[in-house]
Design goal:
Radius of gyration: 23 Å
Structural class: mainly beta
Distance between the termini: 55 Å
Largest sheet: 5 strands, antiparallel
Number of strands: 11
Number of domains: 1
Strand content: over 45%
Number of helices: 1
Length: about 130
């Protein structure tokens, strides 16, 4: 299952348990936010494509953290005129974890995350241990 949501003037393809960095949202860390602008929603019954959005669809997510992106330097120089300008900018962003999808009141919860299988450890040969 996946959905395409629109927030902050950008579109994001999200699935269950995805951790996505999006433009800044208001809200406390740990609170739940709902995205109502769902452009496409894939579920067990098929795929819903909206014009422009799927009516009755929503995506629920939990806010993980707030932060700032990498610094972007804007440097302008006019040659032979002793003129230059340097500016820096760091964009604010919010990290969210996708929890559930809903369509017309029915909620599609995230399936439990599969446990990681540990790699088997090779037994140590006795001849190598004695040496």
């Amino acid at each position: 299952m996946f959905a395409v949501i629109k927030t902050g003037g950008k579109q994001f393809r999200v699935a269950h348990h995805d951790v996505v960095t999006i433009p800044k949202l208001e809200g406390e860390v740990g609170s739940t936010v709902t995205f109502d602008q769902v452009l496409t929603l894939s579920h067990d019954g098929g795929i819903e494509i909206g014009l422009p959005g799927v009516t009755g669809a929503a995506v629920a997510a939990a806010i993980v953290s707030h932060g700032r992106g990498e610094k972007v330097i804007a440097f302008k120089k006019r040659r032979r005129q002793n003129s230059r300008r340097k500016r820096g900018h760091r964009q604010h962003h919010t990290v969210v974890r996708i929890d559930a999808f809903s369509l017309n009141g029915s909620t599609f919860e995230a399936p439990p995350k599969p446990a990681r299988a540990s790699k088997p450890v090779a037994p140590v040969a006795e001849s190598a241990a004695e040496a």
